[in-house]
Amino acid sequence: MAKKINFLKKIKDFIYKNRKQKIVKNKDKKKIRFSFFTKAKVNPIIVPKEENHWEAWQTFNPAAIVLQDKVHFLYRAIGFDGVSRFGYAKSNDGFKIRERLNYPVFEHQTKNSFNINSFFSGGSFSGAEDPRIVRVDNEDRLYLTYTACDGGLRVGLSSIKVADFLAKRWRWKKPQIISPPGQTHKNWVIFPEKINGYYAILHSISPKISISFRESLEFEDGEYVESYYNGNGWKNASWEFYVRGVGPPPLKTRLGWLVFYHALQKNDWWKYKVGVMILDLNNPEKILYKIKEPVLQPDKKYEHNGFKPGIIYVSGAVVKDGQLLVYYGAADSYIGVAYANLEKFLKQIEKDIQPQLLSTTLKKKHYDD
Fold first, then answer.
1. Domains of the chain (ranges plus CATH)?
2. Of the candidates 141, 144, 173, 294, which lies 20 to 30 Å from 242 by C-alpha distance?
3. Average pLDDT score over residue span 161-171
4. CA 277, 283, 285 angle in degrees (round to 5)?
5. What is the reported pTM?
């Protein structure tokens, strides 16, 4: 095990040293007419802590949910042993971290202690990746989907009672693998409401929107969601050369289901950029709106200097006090937040204004003590 950890650390050190990218700024400010999101001055809001062995290297790709008017986070963390786990943090206002536990709150146990696909997926060699958390129709449970490094990269599903989550009693239900063996699947999310009386799992957006409608989120042994994904950009796509997958669980708005997704642009293939689409409330396999340009893209130092430079990965989104807050992993190493007024955001979608990102400067102080 020690040899594997040392080998992994050498690879990480090499990547950090050689993969820093030059940030290209848009100097033609006259072209910036509108903005969808503003990146917070307090970014990054969560950074690795060397004193905690399990999150000493990377903290990124958070799930987020509002409960009791507080924003609760489960975030992916990687430490000295190379295992990916989930940590917990909480914010009163959605920006400043007021509580952060010094121990992991969720682990996915596997027999195989080394998974090379997991390393290239984010820097770990086993465990659980990229959590998404959701409450369906005010049920007394929260549902967690994530990438399980279990016989490859597959989709895991677990749940916890809301009361236990709030009390920090981490009594997670035994995880189930819900994607088929021998296939690579990631980025599956559950809708926060039943649709026409059924639970809905969004499991692919390319080549088409694909949703599994189920009477229950309980799976029998050997029962899986059959899914197909190819990543090719959609027909007549404006910038999506390659589609990576969906971001946070959909948010219900007056226009429809708000869905964020990640894609690569042909002339910017090394950057993850974030797009937005609106799905029909009653028939979410139908796209009503799709913005012509990315609404988030990497342009800050902390988004370019990390394990994967140029990566913005939105995995959590909430609405709080009329603000749309999106939480993202930056360079697979840190966590940032961007925000917008929700109603203004929806009006811009209706008008189909080509968005530009307004970024604020980075403060040196971190609010994760």
1. 2-23+30-359 (2.115.10.20)
2. 144
3. 98
4. 55
5. 0.88
